[in-house]
Queue: 4 jobs
Job 1
Amino acid sequence: MTLTLSLSLRRKPSVIPGFGLTLGCTVLYLSLVVLIPLTGLLLRPVELGWHGFWRVVLDGRVLAALSLSFGGSLLAAAINAVLGGIVAWVLVRYDFPGRRLVDALVDLPFALPTAVAGIALAAVYAPNGWIGALLLPLGIKVAFTRLGVLVALTFIGLPFVVRTLEPVLQDLDAEYEEAAATLGASRWQSFIRVVLPEILPALLTGTALAFARAVGEYGSAIFIAGNMPMSSEIAPLLIVIKLEEFDYAGASAIGVAMLGASFLLLLAINLLQRWQVARSEG
Amino acid sequence: MSVTLTGIVKRFGNFTAVDGVDLAIGNGEFAALLGPSGSGKTTLLRIIAGLEFPEAGKVTIAGADADSQKAGERRIGLVFQHYALFRHMSVFENVAFGLRVKARSVRPNGREIAERVDRLLRLVQLEHLAKRYPSQLSGGQRQRVALARALAIEPSLLLLDEPFGALDAKVRKELRRWLRRLHDEMGLTSLFVTHDQEEALELADRVVVMNKGRIEQVGSPEEIYNRPATAFVFDFIGNANRFEGQIAGGRLILAGQPVDACIQGRGDGPVQVFVRPHHVALVAAGTAGSLPGRVLHRLPSGSVHRLEIEAQGLVEPVAVEIPASRALPEGFAPGAAVGLTLTEVTVFPVAKPSI
Amino acid sequence: MKGSMSDRRAVGEQAWVRRLLVSLALGYLGLFLVLPLASVYVEALAKGIAPFLAAIVDPDALAAIRLTLLVAAIAVPCNAVFGLCASWAVAKFDFPGKSLLVTLIDLPFSVSPVVSGLVYVLLFGAHGWFGPWLQAHHIKIIFGIAGIVLATIFVTFPFVARELIPLMQQQGREEEEAAILLGASGRQTFWRVTLPNAKWGLLYGVLLCNARAMGEFGAVSVVSGHIRGLTLTMPLHVELLYNEYDFVGAFSVASLLSLLALVTLTLKSLLEWRFRSDEQAGAA
């Protein structure tokens, strides 16, 4: 059942059949589902022209939404870097009752539908919610503010740092820390000078992944956000609003801006991952 | 700095790695822990370094109980088997590490650190590689960096875990002689772990032979080789022929024949008989008092002739070594009949079967 | 000795540091994971079992459940077959542009869910490229079920392929080559040799794909007409109820979805454990 395409002429013949068929189907499906629609998105803002595009993107409300989505995601990713790093350390290095359960639970943000996460976070951090009520006397309002957005974005990025760090910590040879100890380093010195540089690429990769995920997040954020224009409105929501107003061009302009940023991030993540692999083989 | 171990026992789960070890290393000694893998020698080293804590027993370093001291406080330099160089630091920074992490009150300033590191790098002949990274170095160079790093903290005791294991033969030989010279010049006390007997016998002042977590024998290389105290030591050190024999009526019976041997006042019963290959002499077949045999193989091997003789009544072929300076008579070609006489025989009682 | 310290007292952190780190870790996870998860069930049952059950068997809720299952039943197999195709092409052959292909397959992962829906609106919406043509032929994609299916397929596109490609690359081609040389056809080789080897990766990918397909919100929200009882999946139905202040209703339906999540996590752990023990048995 071999279909010979012209491609196969450039490749040495293989014993295994099915190249033409599988590659053809793959490329076809990929084009129909992903590439053509994405091209459509990229082409849409063209009708605005270069200036029109920037006018949309730099509009006050849009800028506020973009800065909330990106700024909040960056902060959330930083929080995840520190606390997620601690979680990874604790899961790999220590043993305590329920460790396996905790390990499985870390993946919850992957598995839980974002709408469910959204209403649950809103419930917990609302002024009458379990945590919200505790914070109210302190004057801290979480739900329906930018802080709420931060909470949601932290939730969604939580597993990335943990899962990226775990295998690296697992494979870290005990000898380095032992050598540092015999040379007189304190535990803290050993961590900062020896362990941290070793796990840095993985830590940065995980943080970048968490960032990328949080930037486009919608479902878990819109329930707990105030969705007030110019203050607690996230960029994806703005896209939805513009679509409802049938401002396709405007919506796609914002979409392209977000896509562009995501691709840059993807590039950075790719480079980081390659740095990580190169380091581990050094 | 002297180290004394008394009654050390270390277990990992159900496995007993060190089973009651007493040992004393004197100031300035260069000692070797020699044994097969699993004999407990690396574990013992790590206990001295403070990386493991024994279930029982005491470690005394320079007269003081080391129990309260953690790894970094014992001023012991440890060279790991795979060097454990910090990959993200240059050679200079690796060596400087022990100085940089000292408490502020005793830490030397930047210039002093640079001076000391340079001096050490010159000592190990790597001053031209100070800015390189471990991944850019050869195995021998990494080894020397690891050594310089351990010496930077001016240890009173230097521990080396199979320091030459990962290097090829020629580099190994050069480095070990160089290490011994360094030890002598700097007046260190050194203890190294190895499974290579040639290395241990060549370098060490004293050799500690270990097996299954216990010490079999401690002594100078000459003692270990010529006067092995147990069957294990005889078998492990140098080449050995091992046979089953009997002592009956005060005489050693081997392959059904009485053999002249010093049996050291051992009683009647089954014994293990050890003979070094160069203590077997070949004579014409049928000579009185010799064991009849037949030549199986003959290998010219550098400085000795090696022959394998199938001897009547002995299960294993007998390995024989004759110096190459002595020409072999024609009659010792493969297939020829010969006679074997044993010029020196050591006898040990058969080890009781363990239940 | 990798990972764990040989003797903690010798080289590890002091006990108080360890306790602090564990507390921080558990506190962080509790605050962000456990509390929200628990609140779903607490809120769902806030007024007792009866309203909870009523919310679930409500006809609109049942319609939403049916739609969710339908969408998953279409999207997951499509992407699973695609995943098998793509991993076969990538793992068993060498060709120029392979890494570009793999990167392109990963694209939907880095696209915001809302943008994922947006691209289909731009194609098939009223003012989309094909909008007028579709309207003329009375075909409804956007605001119809087809749109929801398409958006879900886009969002869950890479899941199975991402699991299978590295797995099959690691497993190599030798077994397939051996089978072919022994006279098996391509199809036989696939069913008898490749598929059994890849089964854990496939199951794992399908599991994750399904979880995402059933739970997708942003993309589906954009393309759906939000017509109660018709074009609402379960996550959208949850949003509808929540916006109507029917909190018990919203959390009741949400509790079904979180049950799905917990089952997914459990199966995930099980599959990981089975895969690892299979690997070890094979290596032994």
Job 2
Amino acid sequence: MKVLKQYWIVLLIILATITAVFVKGFSRNSFRYDAVKRAEPSVNKANIITPGQTARLPGDILWIDLDGVKNFSTGPDEKVISIPADSILTKTYKKLIFKHKGSIVIKSADKAISAGVWMILAQMGIKNVYILN
Amino acid sequence: MNFKSDMKTREKISALLLSAGIILALLPLTGNRSFSGKPEKVLSEILNAETFFSVDQVARFIVTEDSTIQLIDVRSPEAYRKNTMPRSVNIPYNDFIGNDPDKYLNNTNIKSIFISDDDYYSSLAMAYSKGLGYNNCYVMKGGLKEWTSTVIESTFTGERISARENALFETRIRAARLFNEMNSLPDSLKLKFMESKKFSAKKLDGGCE
């Protein structure tokens, strides 16, 4: 107790730092550290996938259509949802995306939309997100 | 007494060093920047229609030599050499991501318009820049493909032309002329020109060379 009283400021600083780091590191409401590292798949084109390559993706695939058309050629068991790009970070969809364990494939007729959404999701820490070519 | 006070000082120093060590261990050890702001806000800025300029708007900027505009071509150097946009600089996407964008985007009075073959790499570069806090970034909608089909291959079919349409076609013709002049230069001259247009952070800062 004496130690705690003596060094309470130091302990407070450590606790505050640990809390801030954990919040930043694990929060679904903020971006992760190191933007260059998160953007790397776009530099080496590892974030683009063709329909033929999707069979090699690990785990279940969550197909997201950003145009509201559900224009995916997938098997009958595939999970396809239609989410307008500007709604993808609403509470419901964010929960769905973050909870999904496998890969996420996004598609839009507008390459600008799929590129922008990919960058945001990648910077939020979602690793297995791909753009369907 | 001295011994006791020395012990206390040592304890305090040890506690401080230990806490500094814990903090350093937990903090991310990277010199790279991270996106800032709320993801929802950045996403809405990226998707905002005002973030995109049409090829006609870019043609007008080129023809009027608008000094508040900077065209950044993020294609590879080979692609840039083949089809060079007038008044543009080439910063390949790999280099743009790998370096601190402050080198290219720190002048808030200049609008930076990203160009690529289509919208993909230019939009990625724009999204990356916006995420890092650079609000003066835009995309030429449709890229070089749209530029070619709308500006370079522009034709008017009809019997009458309105004043507005006439102005539009005039701008397209002038921009196409500049584009064709640029790209008909012999390789050696083009290389010299491109070298002179290579982005120089020093020039922006007004520093001595």
Job 3
Amino acid sequence: MTPLALAWRTARRYRARAVLAVIGVAVIGALNFDMLMLSRGLVLSFADLLNATNYNIRISGNSGLPLSRSPIDNAGTLMKQVAALPQIASVAVMRTASAALVEPSRRPQGVELVGSSDPSGLGVWRLLRGSNLDTASDGTAAQTAVVSQTLAERFSLAPGSTIHVRAGISGTMSALPPISLRIVGVGDFPFEPEESLVVATSMAGFARAHGGVVDDRAEFMFAASRPNVGVDAAVDAIDKLRPDIRAFSNEQLVANFARNAFTYFRQISVVLSTTTAVFSFLLVTTLLTVSVNQRLGEVAALRALGIRRRHIAATLLWEAVLLVGIGGTLALPLGQLLASILDGILRRMPGLPAGLHFFAFEPQSLVLHVLVLSATAIVAAAYPTWLAVRLPIAQTLRQEVVS
Amino acid sequence: MTIVEACRLTRVFPMSAGPVVAVRDASLRVDRGDYIAIGGPSGCGKSTLLHLLGCVDAPTSGNVMFEGRDVGTLTDSGRGRIRLTRIGFVFQRFFLLPMLTAWENVELPQSEAGASRAERRERTRELLEYVELSDRAHHLPSQLSGGEMQRVAVARALANRPALLLADEPTGELDEETGERIAALLDRVHADGTAIVLVTHNAALANRAKTRLSMRSGVLHT
């Protein structure tokens, strides 16, 4: 009989102990798996958000953090300069302003007005139904708009509806006349907080909402490098255009955030996953040690019959591997379920982009989970195995008879 | 032909209250065809002597020669190999693996010794027939009586055709009638050519042996 078969039969024989160990490892393993998903979840999710757009370069004002919406002055000129660079395939700008939805017989509702030079939305929205902005719109016709799902639900809007939006003016009551916008699509705005009320329109619509007078600034500028040119070369070329702007590739942004903003989560997850691994180790070691202590007579008899130490050690190791392996496998769906619950709780934090998640699965997390649990099984089996293979045969047999 | 020869064995156990001499200057030779019973009161050193003869313990002084080899010079795996292939053990408390059936318990030492599947199947069937437990082959030890468990333990001890069977109080946990049946089984094992050394309190069992020895305070009396 192979050590694996013997280990399996032992686990089945001592079913209560085995079930206890498997449940314990599954719960602890689920926490461990969650910590691994948490350690890089925000970074991965952030990278997914950025990469979901068609642009791989972000341009911002030189002051403030890359995504702090520090406005870029002379944005029109800069856009032309960037577009003229041989490394650049396309460029787009986005503007944001506060506004109010003014509908007859309803109280004005504050919304965020987004102006985009890219009718497909720069990846700032993901269309759920309808179509993207009308590229043929001009200043005279009703401008088109894509609205957020929450806004559509709250005001019973659908593609084809018309809304009236009055742009706000910072620090004062706005007396601007509202403009009509024809809704062509409803979408998700993953960079905006959940439940945001957003109206996105073209740059012409944005200017029209401001009475046709809008300063030459931009909150965001996006660029895409040509496929045959490295993104770093494109970033360098943009950086050299003007000293008051900074360009970042998506990778640089993700790396910066991983280094600065998300270190906290990584540290927490390292501490918690180490702790859970220790708990897992203690649980399995305790159960196996108790089990070996209960079976000392059997082990001594096996040794007296000539069963090799290697065979006994391999059986105990397999027993640990089986308990941790089954528990660890059950930990995956359990961890996924727990992660989705925790993610839901954490994402209730105000101001968090809707597309950002705290827990993200990646193959690396699975590999680490397997490695941590494998190491736990081996280390957990070490002490009981040592006990079993080193026990003095004659003395143990004598004690078993006396007891 | 001599199977095992113990020469002036002494076994001292160091204890916190002072050393205890379990076996003192004991010499014994077991030849093929021998059937030796060692009697004596509890704690007189019978089991310790059996463990020394069975290569599971090492003497403090003296030496054990097993089939011409000095056991003291062998490695742990060398002694393990002797126990696996040349010696069979029967314990007072049976020590069958509770998760394995009677069949699997008998098969285990053969598997460890490298016997093929076909050889194991044939030998296990033959042994379970020998101990009259063919019909209980697939029962777990928990489903067997004490006497049946001890018969399985005897079958397991004979699995690799040992030259010597060592039995430590083989009827110690059994009632008189069941003990008698085990004694008869040991007689048969001996008659079929396996040398036996057993230690027992049971005078009836001891009287069946060809040679009866006794121990007092670690000293072996012939």
Job 4
Amino acid sequence: MAVSRQVFESRVLALLGSLTGVARRLTRNDADAEDLVAATIEHAWRGAETLQCEAAFKGWIFRILHNTFVSDCRRAAARPHCESIDAEESEDDDAFSLFEQMHQPFLLWFSNPEQAFLDKLLREDLERALADLPDHHRLVVVLADLEEFDYAEIAEALAIPIGTVRSRLARARSALQKRLWHQAQAYGLRAEAAETVAGRPQERLT
Amino acid sequence: MTRHDIDCEQALRKLFDFIDHELDDDERDAMQHHLGACRSCFSRADFERRLKDKLHELRHVDLEPDADERIRRLLRSF
């Protein structure tokens, strides 16, 4: 499909924030993210005939972003953090639920420990847990939860079936929650949250 | 069971589809009906939704003025 320069420009500008946001999470670096977005836009314009229809623009350009990042990584062995982007599930395959960990019967004395945990959860805690995920897990969480793509858009962007989106997202969320749980244990956050709710000091629970 | 009745196991299996707005109307109705009747599943859904909202707050999309101008210049060059 041929897309006019004017339409291409307006669609890119409308998505520029999301493109930049995802690129930052992939490259972990503002300068590299800027280069990735610029390269993506150039590739997209040169390959505009591969766009099936205007409605598919979002998934199409994010697929180009993803492919450009993967190609860059393969060329630049100096970016070791890129290695897992195409990896299939290899770690954290066992389902883990932070809610179930927090929702222990003995903690029910403290009203809602899982809600208190969320109240105490800092942006830095989430950033650290997200950054620690393998690339293929981080990317699917970024698309679904930060950028609020629907499953069909994620499938298009990553060139995977919707069923794989669903299973990868489940594993990624499980891995993220496992990291938050380990952080909570390391910082005693779980006990602190319980103390706050109970309104009286408690011994550390971890 | 009526059309709206699902059990906890079914509800938990569909929980993230529900939070991600991926259920069709009937499935969403059944889930909402279950969550209205089951405190445990309601608490779980509330927890996962709040965690998703906190992740969304990490979204950072502002470009530096120089970067924005670079992209606009690139677009004008096509």
